[in-house]
Amino acid sequence: MAAVCDVLYIAESELFDGDATDLRELGLDSVRFVLLMKQLGVSRGSELQKRLVSDLSIAGWAQALELPQPEGVT
Q1: What is the per-residue pLDDT across 27-58, written as a single tens digit (0 to 9) for each?
Q2: 4, 17, 19, 53: which has the highest count of C-beta atoms within 10 A?
Q3: pTM of the full structure
Q4: Which sequence spans correspond to the domains of the chain?
């Protein structure tokens, strides 16, 4: 979540487990989304990217980013 905080200019201490805040309310737009995907090493069209797009809440991203990724797949 550190990369998310860096790109959105928020402190990680402002987040809490289960936070349902929509990342768009915190300034996530298409440019920042692309920047985040690059910082996180997420490939365009990957399963992880699809999971992140399907739930734009802080809790949804925290859960998706904590899941183990298959080897060689980002």
Answers
A1: 999 999 999 999 999 999 999 999 999 999 99
A2: 4
A3: 0.78
A4: 2-8+20-66
